[in-house]
Structure formats: C-alpha cells, structure tokens
Amino acid sequence: MKISVLGSTGSIGTSALDVISNLKNYTVVGLSANNNKTLLNKQINKFKPKYVAVGSSELKDISLIKEADLVLIAVVGFAGLIPLINAIKLKKRIALANKEALVIAGDLINKLIRKYPAEIIPVDSEHSAIFQCINGNNPEEISKIILTASGGPFRNYPYKKLSKVCVNDVLKHPTWKMGKKITVDSATMINKGFEVIEAHYLFGVPYDKIEVVIHPQSIVHSGVEFTDGSIIAQLGRTDMRLPIQYALTYPERVQSTVKKLNLTEVGKLEFFKLSAKNFPCFELAMSAAKISGSMLTVLNAANEVAVMKFLDNKISFIKIPKLIEKAMKKHKVIKNPDLEDIIEVDSETRKYVEEIAR
Ligand code: MG
Q1: What is the pLDDT of residue 154?
Q2: CA 115 to CA 263: how far, in whole Å?
Q3: Ligand 1: distance of its center to the CA of 59 in Å?
Q4: Among 68, 232, 257, 357, fewest CB within 10 Å belongs to which?
Q5: How far is ligand 1, taken at its centre, from the CA of residue 221, in Å?
C-alpha cells in the first residue's frame, strides 16, 4: 500500500507515521509539511518518500498524491480543502483527519465524491467510531447519531471565570493530546459543532438526528442508535493512533502497539446533557449549520483567524465567539457556493475579522 501523508509534522501526521512504521507492506510515497523543516527532514530520511512538499502552495501540487493508493489528509484548517478536492478527482481512497474542509464545503465535496467516485474513511475519533458502528448495518435504519464530547477543560467553569483564562489553561485538555488549534477549538466547543456538521455530511444524517452528549471519560468515542432502539457504540483508549490505523487498514483490523483498554480500570462511564450556555461557539456553529451555504465558510474562516489571535495573546478567550458572531452577522449568504465563491468568502471573512480584532 502506497501512502501520501499531507500534514506529516502535525499531531495526526506524526502519529500516522508511527502507525505506518509498524504496519507491514506500507510505503510512504509523499510527505508534506507547512513549516517544520527539521522534523520533515528526519521523516524524509526515515521514510524516503518520492515526493515532498513544503508550505501551502506546494500542497496543491497533485504529484504529491498521484502515485498513492491512500491519501491521509492531516492538514489543519482551510488549507486542507484543495488537496481533498484533488484526491477526490484522482478517485483516491482518502483517510480524512481534516474536518474543516467538510464544514466549509460539505455539499460541494459530496457532489464531487458521487461524480468521481472517491472514498472517504474518517480519522476523527468520533466519526471513526460512527463509521465502525454503521459498518454492516443498513444506514436507512439509523434513528440517531450520538456524538460524545469530553466537554473540554471548561465544562464546569462559571462563565465569569472564562474571561480570565489564558492560553495555557486552554491547552490543558483533560483527555486528549492534540495540536494547538484543535485544542482551542475543543475548549470553545466549536470543535464539537464542526463535528456535528462533519457527521451530517459524512453519513447523510439530518441535524435533528445528531445528539451531542457530554462524556468526560472519552472512552465511548460515539454511537449510533438504530430504529429498534439498539445503540451500538465504539469504545477505546484516547489515542489517535487507533482511529488512524483503522482508516489506513480498513476494512481489515491488525495488531496495534497501543495498550489495550481495560474496562475494570476505567470503572465508570458517565453521560451528561450538554448545557450550551458556556459554549457560545457551539451555538454559533449550529446556527451556521442551519443557515448552511457560504455561512459555514464564514464560521470556519472567522474561527481560524480568532484562534490564531488568541494563541498569539492578541485577544481574550471570550472574544473568539464575539468575532465569529460579528462576521456571521455581516455576511450575505450564497445558497449553493462553488469553489470560487468559497475561496472568496474565506478571504473576505479573514480580512474583516483581522480588521475588527485590532
Ligand atoms: Mg474528534
């Protein structure tokens, strides 16, 4: 199996290369990184890929994925959109870790998948779980998707206290070790909003049949309720190497180096209703989802800019939803945006949020 790993120096990319080095008969033919050249050089020496790309413009070059049987897209944010479209047009099997592309352009991507056709295997732990639960069942018999959420570090914070949190508080996620952007997205819970949208587009389930449930232990990665009332859920350790490996070896399962889950050590599993009042970003994501069209591009672009500003200590944590809300209010929705519309709305939104954040 020949693999291209796009975004190889990030959190998912490095875990994926760790998984690949333990798999038999897998070779890396392409690697791409944004700017971590030191790590990329180490990876080149170890995996000897035929094609390497650095930076977001080289990422769009199709030679990087042309020879691959499988393309792992682990690029963060909007930058993942064009490589995803390229991989679909080349009819590849795609292991998708980038959720933003589906948020920004879900309808467009689904149209392309039907046209070419290509195949997407989700890497996001919740969506990998849902994919595994649906496997072998009739998708028409799904009555509900149950998307679990740890609730992040601020689940029990009073809203007042949120105005004082700093970057370090946010980067301490209780259960998962992840990249910086997604850790902030998890703390605001816009990540869970993105994941509802991602599930809607991946599995064709309407929004009113996707329920978010707080599950602080993060052991149940998600579940599916069927028409007879049975719930099938997937459980596992909070280690991204598991969903990554499943996406790479699907439909087979092979031995993993991750320590097996011991249920008696876990002891208890808790589930709570999501109280959205601490999480305005989640609410904004859900309202953008209902409006859909180009509003979803605005949601993502405004969030990407706001999160970078927060990580650079330029704005406070509670300013993130305020900037997104302003950008959404200003936007005139395009119902069925094409790729050009999406690119334009993305760059206009970025400019606007940069301006109002000053
Ligand atoms: Mg997830």
Answers
A1: 87
A2: 44
A3: 24
A4: 257
A5: 8
Q: 283: which 2 tokens?
A: 């609410």
- pLDDT category of residue 163 using cuts at 50, 70 and 90: confident
Residue 10 and residue 65: Cα distance in Å, rounded?
18
pTM above 0.85?
A: yes
Phi, psi of 325 (to 5 degrees): -60, -45
Ligand 1 mean position, distance from CA 48 (Å):
30
Could you say which architecture CATH assigns to the domain 2-122? 3-Layer(aba) Sandwich (3.40)
Picking from 186, 209, 183, the residue whose alpha carbon sits closest to that of residue 196 is 209
Please report where in the chains the tokens 């301006």 appear, as a residue: 355
3-state helix, strand, coil in the chain (%, to 5): 50, 15, 35
Residue 308 CA to ligand 1 center (angstroms) comes to 20
**Distance (Å) from CA 326 to ligand 1 centroid:** 26
- Distance of CA 194 from the midpoint of ligand 1 (Å): 9
Give per-residue pLDDT as tens, 184-221: 999 999 999 999 999 999 999 999 999 999 999 999 99
Q: From the CA of 113, how far away is ligand 1's center (Å)? A: 22
Give residue-wise pLDDT tens across range 228-243.
999 999 999 999 999 9
Distance 358 CA to ligand 1 centre (A): 31
- Residue 116 CA to ligand 1 center (angstroms) comes to 27
Q: Domain ranges in the chain? A: 2-122
Ligand 1 centroid–CA 45 distance in Å is 31
Alpha helices, H only, 204-279 = 241-249, 263-266
Centre of ligand 1 to C-alpha 125, Å, is: 5
Residue type, 8: S
Q: Residue 91 is encoded by which pair of tokens? A: 């009819």
Distance 170 CA to ligand 1 centre (A): 17
pLDDT value at 142 more than 90: yes
DSSP assignment of 308-329:
HHHHTTSS-TTHHHHHHHHHHH
Of the chain, the percentage scoring pLDDT greater than 70 comes to 100
Q: Calculate how far, in angstroms, residue 50's C-alpha sits from the geometric centre of ligand 1.
A: 31
